Amino acid sequence: MVKQPQLVDMLTAGMRGASARQRVIADNIANVRTPGYRRKTVQFEQILAKALKNGDAPTSLQAKILMLDTTPADQTGNNVDIEMEIGELIKNSSTYKTYLRMLNKVYRQMELAMTVQ
Known about the structure:
3 helices, 7% strand, mainly alpha
């Protein structure tokens, strides 16, 4: 069973990863018409899973930003697909909100435990 402080650390790390992904997606969208721009993506869940498997604290984990050169580019050399980015944006927003809701529940449980007499 995961203890609440560990759960808070995991959820906070997840929110940091989702925030990093949000920034990268926004950057991709902003550069959708920039010639030669290559789409970036974020690798975080694998890093978090590995840290948890190894028993490492998730508090200092950093998302890894990758540039995808394998995605087909248009005639200007840009490989950003706006429809895919919007889909990723929606999915990532839901992920962030889920982490936030779970974190709020943990804090409410802690608060309730401190006020029950």
